[in-house]
Amino acid sequence: MAKTKTVFFCQSCGTESAKWVGKCPSCGEWNTYVEEVVSKSTASAAAFTSEKSKPINIKETGSGGTKERTSTGIRELDRVLGGGIVDGSLVLVGGEPGIGKSTIMLQMAIKLNKKILYVSGEESAEQIKMRADRIGTTSDQCFLYAETSLSEVIRQADDMGPDIIIIDSIQTLHSDRIEAAIGSISQVKECTGQLMKFAKQKGVPVFLIGHVNKDGAIAGPKVLEHMVDTVLQFEGDRHLTYRILRTVKNRFGSTSELGMFEMNVNGLREVTNPSEVLISPREPGLSGISLGVTVEGNRPLILETQALVSPTSYGNPQRSTTGYDYKRMTMLLAVMEKRLGIRLSTQDVFLNIAGGLKVQDTALDMAICSAIFSSFEDVPMGDDVCFAAEIGLGGEIRPVSRIENRINEAQKLGFKEIYISKHNLKAKDIGQFKIKVRSFSKLSEAFGQL
Ligand code: TYD
Ligand code: MG
């Protein structure tokens, strides 16, 4: 007879507590504890283990490094997975609603010539078919299954023997082993646990789609992130077309990988040369526009920073940023005011990173300063100049990481000049580039040149 007990779970971070608490001691959120029934079923642990496992000598253990990887047929997806799908791996794909999680999984499912079980608890098979029609290609090996009961899903998977299982989404599945409500932390945890067992025992890769909560974390995040092998996060503004797929955790590869996609009328299209699409359509001779080289994951990206500086008409000057840290911009404004002696305190300043991306890389500092400077003076920056340097509080130009990668990217895209810090590269190293590398140690010096 199953023993029932109830536990309180924080719905924001998944922390467990025997008693109700007002403020979660782990994530600090208020009023997030909900009582959930968990029955410790005795069958639970032994369900899929037919034989008892034993410790194995490390020398006799098969090497994980030689494991075959299956390509997903989508290069950008392979990249974030660390080279392809590993057998028996559990991959969590997180992101806000409407960002394209179902689309990318379906696209992978119909592109791969493998037997795929696509379980959807959110859409009917007809709805998924309609989506597949939009994407275009079809596969005769992709099976759609609208079901929310985990035991049914596992039974079907056992019968069918798919090569890959996709669960859309983990929050819609429920296990009858426990009584908690669908989507609750304990259900999500239980279902993920059972799917993990299935994946490991049968060697079948399982993709889980997970929704994120208001703070951008995957619901029940800690629990899920610990359990799965790989966590991919879909980012981007859903009103804009570009999407970034980032590796947050990967037991089989690097976490500094990033894939880029564009949402079209017929599905997600890979963007293999992000810099080109991000900076291509530009009006020549506009002031307030400057290009900076940032590094996202392992990839250098050239971004367009746009600034508008105009005299304040009310008492307080307005400042606003899109895609960039507000505080960092106000700091840069103060540095420019003090070190370049330009009166920005009487000006409204608006800053935008084009393309809908959010960046934190400080190597964009100099590009931002020059966009502001260019708008303030109403003089356009040259079209073939770009920047890669951090600005310090003293107005000094500081070195940034991976400078060779950045310079190479600028060179590849046909820029004529790049401005960097004097402390970043030795003179003899600069000689190896075809692009003109100009190095400075002070902002005032560099802007005197511009
Ligand atoms: P979807 O994959 O359903 O998002 P999620 O599963 O993350 O909630 O993506 C839905 C959005 O994508 C929706 O707003 C419509 C858009 N879309 C396109 O623009 N083109 C397409 O070909 C498809 C399939 C979707
Ligand atoms: Mg969806």
Quick rundown:
Residues 66-212 form the RecA family profile domain. This protein is α/β, with parallel strands linked by helices. It has helices at residues 75-81, 101-111, 125-135, 150-160, 185-202, 221-227, 274-279, 326-340, 365-377, 403-412, 427-430, 443-449; strands at 3-10, 16-17, 33-40, 69-70, 85-86, 90-95, 116-120, 142-146, 164-168, 206-211, 230-235, 242-250, 258-264, 267-270, 289-296, 299-311, 319-322, 347-353, 385-387, 390-391, 397-398, 417-421, 436-440.
Task: Give an account of the 3D structure.
- It is a single chain.
- With 450 residues, this protein is an alpha/beta fold.
- The protein has three domains: 1-41; 74-272, P-loop containing nucleotide triphosphate hydrolases (Rossmann fold), CATH 3.40.50; 277-449, Ribosomal Protein S5, domain 2 (2-Layer Sandwich), CATH 3.30.230.
- 27% of the residues lie in helices and 28% in strands.
- It is built from twelve helices and 23 strands.
- It has helices spanning 75-81, 101-111, 125-135, 150-160, 185-202, 221-227, 274-279, 326-340, 365-377, 403-412, 427-430, 443-449; strands at 3-10, 16-17, 33-40, 69-70, 85-86, 90-95, 116-120, 142-146, 164-168, 206-211, 230-235, 242-250, 258-264, 267-270, 289-296, 299-311, 319-322, 347-353, 385-387, 390-391, 397-398, 417-421, 436-440.
- The strands form five sheets. The protein has a nine-stranded mixed sheet with strand order 8-7-9-10-6-11-12-13-14, with helices on both faces. It has a seven-stranded mixed sheet with strand order 17-18-16-15-19-22-23. Strands 2-1-3 form a three-stranded antiparallel sheet, with no helix packed on it.
- Helix 3 (125-135) links the parallel strand 7 and strand 8 (142-146).
- The protein is elongated, with a radius of gyration of 26 Å.
- Residues 42-49 have low confidence and may be disordered.
- Magnesium ion binds at residues 101-102, 122, 168.
